[in-house]
# Entry
Amino acid sequence: MTPADAATLFRALADRLDAVADPATFGGAFLIVPPGADGIEPLVLDGLHVTTTPNIAVFWTGVSGQVAMAVDMAGNQARGQQPAWGRR
# Structure
């Protein structure tokens, strides 16, 4: 991924943030752009929370889980393996 590609992701996420109609539903957003790989760019809205009150622990658990999956996939790619999750 080039710096220009990363900038496009940031602009797209900014557009998605601008489009959130009800600020009370905003549950957080993050964008992670590792070198040489696709970015991770979720926008979390209230419907994804466990409760109707935004919970910072739920947000960071989601970030942590997505990063852990990306690290696992990158390690598997480096070793030429398929991901362990989802295999039968």
Remarks:
- Residues 6 and 33 are 7 Å apart (CA to CA).
- The chain has a mean pLDDT of 77.
- The first helix runs from residue 3 to 18.
